Amino acid sequence: MLAVVKTPRTKTTVFEVKGDVPDRVIKYLKRDYDVEVMIDEDEEYVDITETEWFKDMDKKMKPGNYLRVYRENFGYSQAKLGKMLGGLSRHKISDMEHNRRGISKDIAKKVSRIFNRPVEYFI
User: Fold this and answer.
1) Would the CA dihedral through 92, 119, 102, 100 be positive or negative?
2) What is the pLDDT of residues 34-56, one digit of tens each?
3) Which three-class secondary structure state does DSSP give residue 118?
4) DSSP letters along 61-84, please?
5) CA-CA distances (angstroms) from residue 118 to 27, 100, 111?
């Protein structure tokens, strides 16, 4: 379910609530905030990897881009990832992320295990 809250005069979306939205929350929003609440029961989830946008972006991605994306998604600093990879400096991680330095097969295997992603992403 998707609940979209819009302001009455401008119809500007204030926020969206996704997932199971209890009826009491919807009533609360309508009553206390005097807003229009739109309910979409048929929200369809799409596997992003199947979209044309993702396929196009995937072609442009280089190993360093994947390294940066996964590091940031896991909340690791460059220094922390460097330590996890056996004591690499933050500077070396930065160079790999910016594709100024290649990622060796050994490092790619370690990164693959850390992020649980195919090693091919990082080679």
Assistant:
1) negative
2) 666 666 666 566 777 788 888 88
3) coil
4) --HHHHHHHHHHHHT--HHHHHHH
5) 46, 22, 9
